């Protein structure tokens, strides 16, 4: 009787060891599969993943499809110590990555105090507001030359195809924004490029984005 009980106990222990072993193996396999899945490159074949800017360091790159062609906007920055800051904005089509079909070169120099050009990443958007199949890309950047509190130069760009539409002017300083104050800073302006826009919706969209990023009061056109 005692021998039989010992045999039963031994069988239970062996069974528990086997179950535990297979459980560990399965967990290990699942973990390996999970790790392999996590390790897969994101957008492995996308335009931006293998793109290097001609000038400076890459700040931002975003691609999109338009009329069965892949396009991308590439933004890079080059800082020359204590001399100047440069922002390069280039729009490419994948079939021709040698030269951009539209480019913007912004330079901030000769500033005796703190200075920098700041691309505002959360301002970037890709839209088709007029539903014509040609995407609009829009974004904002600052040109800060400041030794204290005051307005900061700012530009809002909306690009459709090879057309560039600009709002230029000033942003309220951070202290005024936090205190919800509106100092009497210089007004900003909607540049003449918007006059040639096919749709008023471009202006409305850009003005809203300007206000959302604390731009100062706007004047219609130069």
Q: Cα distance, first to last residue?
A: 104 Å
> What is the overall pLDDT average?
79
Q: Which regions are unreliable across 5 or more consecutive residues at pLDDT < 50?
A: 1-45
Number of helices: 3
Q: What does the overall shape look like?
A: globular
Strand order of the largest sheet: 5-6-7-8-9-10
> Strand count, sense and closure of the main sheet?
6 strands, mixed
Order of helices and strands: HEEEEEEEEHEHE
Q: Could you say which structural class the secondary elements and strand pairing correspond to? A: alpha+beta
Per DSSP, what share of the residues sits in E-state strands of 2 or more residues?
A: 35-45%
Fraction of helical residues: 25-40%
The number of distinct β-strands equals 10
Walkthrough of the structure:
25% of the residues lie in helices and 40% in strands. With 222 residues, it is an alpha+beta fold. A 6-stranded mixed sheet has the order 5-6-7-8-9-10, with helices on one face. Strands 1-2-3-4 form a 4-stranded antiparallel sheet, with no helix packed on it. Strand 7 (152-160) and strand 8 (163-171) form a beta hairpin. 18% of the residues are buried. Mean pLDDT is 79; it is low at 1-45.
């Amino acid at each position: 009787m005692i021998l039989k009980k010992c045999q039963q106990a031994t069988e239970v222990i062996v069974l528990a060891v086997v179950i535990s072993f297979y459980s560990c193996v399965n967990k290990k396999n699942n973990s390996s599969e999970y790790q392999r899945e996590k390790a897969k490159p994101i957008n492995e074949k996308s335009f931006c993943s293998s793109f290097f800017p001609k000038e400076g360091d890459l700040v931002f790159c975003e691609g999109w499809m338009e009329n069965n062609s892949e396009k991308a906007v590439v933004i890079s920055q080059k800082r020359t110590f204590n001399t100047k800051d440069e922002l390069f904005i280039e729009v490419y089509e994948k079939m021709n990555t040698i030269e951009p079909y539209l480019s913007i070169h912004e330079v901030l120099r000769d500033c005796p105090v703190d200075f920098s050009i700041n691309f505002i990443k959360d301002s970037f958007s890709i839209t088709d507001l007029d539903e014509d199949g040609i995407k609009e890309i829009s974004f904002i950047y600052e040109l800060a030359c400041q030794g204290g509190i005051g307005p900061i130069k700012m530009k809002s760009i909306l690009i459709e195809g090879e057309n560039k539409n600009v709002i230029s002017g000033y942003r309220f300083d951070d202290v005024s924004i936090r205190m919800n104050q509106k100092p009497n800073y210089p007004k900003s302006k909607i540049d003449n490029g918007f006059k040639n826009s096919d749709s008023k919706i471009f202006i409305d969209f850009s003005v809203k984005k300007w206000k959302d990023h604390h731009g100062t009061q706007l004047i219609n056109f130069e």
